[in-house]
Amino acid sequence: MRSDLLKISLVLILLFLISLISFLFFKGVNIIIYSLIIFLVLVLAIYLLGYDRRKEKDSKDVILIILIVNLAYYLFTYITGYFSGFYKPIYSHTFSNILKNVIGNLVFILTIEILRKTLVKKIKYIDKNFKFFILIILILSFCEYCLNYSLSSLSDNKRILQSIFNFIPLLSENILLTYVIYRFDITCSLIYRVMMDFTKYIVPIIPNFGDYINTVIAVIYPFILLLIINSNFQSMQRKVNNYRLDVKYNKISKIGTYILFVFLFILVLLVSGVGRYFILSIGSESMTPKINMGDVVLIDKGINKNKIKVGDVIAFKYEGNIIVHRVVSLSMKNNNKIYKTKGDNNKDFDAWVITNDDLVGKAELRFRYIGWPTIVLNQWIIRK
Q: What are the structural domains of the chain?
């Protein structure tokens, strides 16, 4: 066993060095050439570790779950996309380009997943060798990350931030893929990847939820699928690779995953503003001390506009921005309600007037300090 772990370490170090060289010295990497280099690492791994040909009998059930859940995911996102809008992927959808993109990525995916199986199936005791699972997930994620990013391409803070947002979903996906290969079979991971990774090359339109929501969905979804798969098999307490699943741990993990999912789901709704309420980070000191810079305010969009009175704190649109200020006077002009506003910390009234068409909602609650990460990131990008 110790000999196998040393061989796994050797393969991972080699794979990391190849990815690091690509990241540091190559602006763009050809996916076919990159796949061939990774294939050589795969050949070495099979030579050192052998290839496990066993198939778990539960794999067919897991494949069915993956097919059904992925189809439900696409059905839900495209129905939701009807309200949020769609965008066209940057990839050309001519037959020749579809074929080129699909073949190139299919070669890479096959190589990576066979390598993942070769490494993972040699680790018999996950509780004793958990660090090796972490290393496999991190290094394979970095390997895929280097397909799209290099050091020279990270030319500004916005690009760096975007690359980080793209790396986090890779980690989430690799956790799921490593899990299903360890517990079941490579066929499960291949079907998942084909269904989820090739959409942008084949489908002409994709739901447009915005970068932030897309990232959150890409991070959450693999964990939801993992939870569904695990929930269907944990009660049977099978022995998998000589490791018996601990029921108490799985129950705690299941509860924790549900709590995390509910929290993230609510957060997505609040940030996107899909429902009645949404949250807004305050980026100025104009409302100090009532509302400070870095606070987050809960906005009620469903408030009856006729009930807004002098002294209420409202959110309104002005020149493409959403501003949170206090109402200092109300009047009527041409049957339109006119709001005069002012920041509590400002000496003068706002130079503009607000109508019902500009009104977004009423500020109901304040949460101290939790908006600072958003403020810092925005200022970092602007400074660059």
A: 2-272 (no CATH), 277-383 (2.10.109.10)
